[in-house]
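Good day; I would like, with your permission, to put a structural problem before you. A protein sequence and the structure tokens that stand for its backbone fold form the material at issue. I would ask you to consider whether the tokens describe a fold that such a sequence might reasonably adopt. I set the record out below, with my sincere thanks for your time.
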Amino acid sequence: MSKTPVGAASATYRKAVNGIAEVLEIEPSHSRYPSLDFEAALEAIPDAIKEQAIEWYIRGIKRGMAKATDLMAEGIIYVHDDGAVRAPAKMEVKVRTKMRGEEWNRHSVNVKATEIGFE
């Protein structure tokens, strides 16, 4: 993983841009400035959906940070003696989802370390 918070934020922006592009069925645009790429991707979303997209993006960041904290507490993601943050090549994250009017569903999400900024 990047050794800086900026690197982690950049990876998050890029993942969000990829997700927006996939839903809108367009090619993602990545430059040297991931935050500007995210803003450009948001411009492609109709105004009525933008506010909700940002709200869910923020929720995702908070939940992701909470899950990362849990994985660190469990020792799955850890700080090595050399100061580098380490993680296994593949991880399984268990989540629960609930859509309005539906029951809670349990899912397992398989995450590759490279998808979240690890080398």
Q: What stands out?
A: The mean pLDDT is 86. The beta strands are 78-79, 85-86, 90-97, 105-112.
